[in-house]
Amino acid sequence: PGAGISFSNWDKAVDAHVGRLLAYALPKDEGTETQRTLIDRALKVRPLPDDRRGRAPTLKGLAGTWAMDPRYADKISGIANEIRQRA
Question: What is the pTM of this model?
Fold first, then answer.
């Protein structure tokens, strides 16, 4: 725990991150072919129990599953809004 996972390049890291988020957002065996491919690749790196699949179709669902912080959704949306204001 806490060691994290390393990737050989940025593209693989992004694909794994997006694939894992998709796994939380979509129930098992759902999504487009491209989404399922990203999920499969991500879960080969770090498995996700089936009972967590599809539990976070919104940011609020990530609190307590993806992140333990109960304010995770508020913090992430706040950061996104700051980025938008600067763009």
Answer: 0.82
